[in-house]
Amino acid sequence: MNHIPKKYYIANWKTYQSISTIKRFIQASNQEADWHETIINSYIGIAASYEHLYYLHKKISKLAMHLGSQDCSAFLPGAYTGQVSIESLQDMNISFCLVGHSEVRAELGQSDMLISSKFKMLLAANISPIMCIGETLAQKNDGMALQVLYDQLEHILNFLQSYTGSTKIFIAYEPRYCIGTGIVPSSDDLQKVFCFLKSLVQQLPIAKNVMFLYGGSVSSKTVQQLHDIKEISGFLIGKASIDFQELKKIVQSDGRMV
Ligand SMILES: O=C(CO)COP(=O)(O)O
């Protein structure tokens, strides 16, 4: 039997959406009679802003999509003003949560240590963490890309040496210079990075539950070349994912999967 691997398409809506644009997205999806056919063998997730999770969690199963968060608190519920605890995210039935997105690292100054705490707490709650890593252009040009990626992963790799749970784990490689720029790395660069990442996880007890995603300027125009990298199990899609038709084209782009 021909086993077709599942492909993951995770929409990171950042703060692009409002309730009215989300309603338009849902209306557009309702008008697509072939949507359910399109997504056979695909997992479609939406990483929404906190304030939209409650609205979306009531709609998401009809959309045949999964719901996730863009971040979470590293604290248990308590006196933590402005934080959103994993427990409250569980009330929204989220399936996954981004951690360490480069925008969060850059704008909120989150450390690798803090990010790894969130990662562990998500696993304890059976929510799939999507661990985002990526180098800057200067780091790439200095030949430091793989070292930077390793440093960002080190805490969680140490933790995963003794983790035996069955929750799926995602590592999303998002080079900083590719986010929102229309640039995607060359196939050679991607091959090098994903082979390196795979080599880091292959000795872990849960290696088979670790999926690799690529993010950074994924669109219906760029996605075709990305399908050729066999280590990539799916995509983390920013701006292009807020338009339902564009998201659909991206999902349909991998003719082998539908
Ligand atoms: O940051 C990203 C996904 O997490 C990528 O954003 P863009 O797809 O808009 O480049």
Describe the protein.
The protein has 258 residues and is α/β, with parallel strands linked by helices. The chain has one domain (12-19, 45-76, 93-257): Aldolase class I (TIM Barrel, Alpha-Beta Barrel), CATH 3.20.20. The chain is 38% helix and 16% strand. It contains eleven helices and eight strands. Strands 1-2-3-4-5-6-7-8 form an eight-stranded parallel barrel, surrounded by four helices. Helix 8 runs parallel beside helix 9 (187-201). It starts with 6 loop residues before the first strand and ends in a 6-residue tail after the last helix. Bound molecules: 1,3-dihydroxyacetonephosphate (13P).
Describe the structure concisely for a colleague.
With 258 residues, the chain is α/β, with parallel strands linked by helices.
Features:
TIM Barrel; binds 1,3-dihydroxyacetonephosphate; glycolysis; EC 5.3.1.1
